[in-house]
Design brief:
Chains A, B: Keywords: Isomerase. Chains A, B: GO terms for molecular function: isomerase activity. The structure is a homodimer of 286-residue chains. The first copy, chain A, has one domain (11-284): TIM Barrel, CATH 3.20.20.150. Chain A is 39% helix and 13% strand. Chain A has ten helices and eight strands. The first copy, chain A, has helices at residues 31-40, 50-53, 57-66, 89-106, 125-146, 169-179, 190-193, 199-206, 240-249, 271-284; strands at 11-14, 45-49, 70-75, 110-113, 149-152, 184-189, 211-216, 256-258. In chain A, helix 5 crosses helix 6 and helix 8 (199-206) packs parallel to helix 9 (240-249). The model of chain A has no long low-confidence stretch (mean pLDDT 96). The interface between A and B is large, with 36 and 36 residues.
Chain lengths: 286, 286
C-alpha cells in the first residue's frame, strides 16, 4: 500500500467537505479560494459540484491546473431513474448529457453518477438497474469523446428507495460488465461500502483501471442523519486501512478524495481548520 | 412457491407490529388479546418480545398453543458486542443465557439475535463478528437443550455502527458455518435484506433447514426513520415475491412473520384493523 505519511499528493478534496462553498457553511469560500487553499497544502486534486461551476467550467478547470492540481471529478449527473429523477426520461437524459459536457469543459477525469431509486411502481431493483444500464450505455460515447469516464457510485443500501437502486459494489461491477464500454467505471466511497466484507473480491473482479475514484470519510457509530452526518476519517467505525487495501489490491493508484457531508459539525468550522485536519488524518489513519 | 391466497396458515404475527402492546400504541392489548385475535383470523403463529412475557413464559406459551397457534420466536437476545451491549462481556453472556431460558420456557422455536455494533475502538467488523461467533457458539448447547435455535439476524447496513456488525446474509452464513452447531440458524427480514440481489445465492449456501424465520414488512421509498418507519407489505419498494422465492428456493417452508415498527402510522391504528390488513396483504402481495 502507498504510504501517505511520506507523500500526501494523492489527497484530493471534494468541495462538499467545505459545505459546497455555500455562504453560512464554513466561510462560503469561492472556488478560487478553495483552489488556492488546496494548492498551498499540497493536495493533488479537487472534485467540484455543478452548482459551483455555472458557466465557468473552462475557467475553473484552467485555474485548477495552473495551481498545480488536477480536477479529479465533477458531481454529478442527475438521478437517472426513480422518484427523484427528472421526468420524462428524455429530460433526465438531456441533463445527463449536459453534465457530461460540463465535466469535459472542466477537464474532469470523471463524472459521478448516483443513479436514482427504484422505478416507481416497479418494486424491482433489477429492472431499475436495467434502465440505468441502458441510459449509461447511451451516454458513454459522449463521455469518451469528452475525455472522461462515467463513474457509477454504489450508494449505501439505506438510499435504495429513492436515491440509488445501485447499492452494492457487486451490482456496480455487474452493470459495468453488462455495458462493456471503456468510459464506464465505478467510484468507491467509504461511507457507502464500509460494511461490505466482500468488497475486495468484487474490486478484483472489476480491476483498478475501472475504479474512477476512492472517496474518504467515516461512518459514525451513532450517526443521526444518513445524508448530512458523515464523520472525519478516524472518528468512526470504518476500517479505513482495510478498505484502501481492497481498492489498491485491485490495482487502483488514483486520488483519495475527502467527501464529508456534515451539516452540524464540519460545515460549521473554518475551512482552513477542516483542510488541515483532512491532511493530518490522511497522513495518519487512512 | 406456496400460494397464500388459498392458505394463509403460514402467516405469523410479531407483536411489535401492534406497538409491542404498549398502552398508547394501538389499544395496548395484552398478550391474551393478541393470541385470541390472531387465532380468530387463522394466523399460524406469534413471536413475542421479552418485555411482554415477564415471568409468565410458560403460561403464555401454553395459552398460545391452546388457541391453536405456535410460538415461532422470541425477541430477543441482548446485543452481544458493541456500544449498546451490556458490559462487561460476562453480563451480556448472562442476559443472553437468560433469554435462551425464557424462549425455552415459552416453547419458542427460536430466539432472535441482533448481534450489536462494531466493538468500540476496534474499527473492525471482522473482529467484532469473531467475538459474536465465540459467544453464540458458547450458548448454542443451552439452546439445543431448550429445544430451540439461535437465529442470527443480519440487520440492514445502516445499523452497522451501533446495532449490528452483522449486516449481510453472506456474513451470517459465514458465521453459521464457522460455528457449525445445529442450533445456530439465520432469520431473514425483508427490511434488512430487500436490497441484496445476491440473497438467493447466499440462502442456497445456507439451506432451508438453517433458516429460522422469514420476516415481512416493506421498505418505504421515502422512509423518514430507519428504526420506526417500516411499511406494510405492498406500500414500499421491496420485491416481496422475489424475496420469498429466494427463501423458498433454499427450502424454507416455515412461517412468514409480519414485523412492522411504525410509530407514526400502524402503531396508532386499531389493532383489529392492522391485523385485518396484514392478512389481506399476506394473501395478495407477499
Amino acid at each position: 500500500m502507498r504510504d501517505f505519511s511520506i507523500d500526501h499528493s494523492p489527497l484530493a478534496l471534494n468541495t462538499a467537505t467545505l459545505g459546497h462553498n455555500v455562504e453560512g457553511n464554513g466561510a462560503g469560500w469561492s472556488p478560487e479560494q478553495v483552489i488556492d487553499a488546496c494548492a498551498a497544502r499540497g493536495f493533488g486534486a479537487i472534485a467540484f459540484w455543478r452548482r459551483e461551476i455555472g458557466t465557468r467550467a473552462r475557467e475553473f478547470g484552467e485555474r485548477t491546473r495552473a495551481a498545480g492540481l488536477e480536477v479529479c471529478g465533477l458531481c454529478r449527473a442527475p438521478f437517472l431513474v426513480g422518484p427523484l429523477a427528472p421526468k420524462p426520461r428524455s429530460a433526465a437524459m438531456d441533463d445527463f448529457l449536459a453534465s457530461i459536457d460540463m465535466a469535459a469543459e472542466l477537464g474532469a477525469a470523471c463524472l459521478t453518477i448516483c443513479v436514482g431509486g427504484v422505478v416507481e411502481g416497479s418494486h424491482s431493483m433489477r429492472d431499475s438497474l436495467k434502465m440505468v444500464a441502458e441510459m449509461v450505455a447511451e451516454a458513454a460515447p459522449r463521455a469518451k469523446a469528452g475525455g472522461l469516464t462515467l463513474a457509477l457510485e454504489p450508494l449505501h443500501p439505506v438510499y435504495g428507495g429513492n436515491r440509488s437502486c445501485l447499492v452494492t459494489t457487486r451490482d456496480a461491477v455487474d452493470v459495468v460488465e453488462a455495458i462493456g464500454h471503456e468510459a464506464v467505471t465505478v467510484a468507491i466511497d467509504v461511507y457507502h461500502v464500509w460494511w461490505d466484507l466482500g468488497l475486495a473480491e468484487q474490486l478484483r473482479r472489476l480491476g483498478g483501471d475501472r475504479i474512477a475514484g476512492y472517496h474518504l470519510c467515516d461512518w459514525l457509530a451513532d450517526t443521526n442523519d444518513v445524508l448530512l452526518d458523515r464523520g472525519m476519517m478516524g472518528d468512526g467505525v470504518a476500517d479505513l486501512k482495510f478498505l484502501r487495501a481492497a481498492v489498491e489490491a485491485a490495482g487502483y493508484r488514483g486520488y483519495c478524495e475527502v467527501e464529508i457531508f456534515s451539516a452540524a459539525n464540519w460545515w460549521k468550522r473554518d475551512p482552513n481548520e477542516v483542510l488541515d485536519i483532512c491532511l493530518e488524518r490522511f497522513r495518519t489513519v487512512c
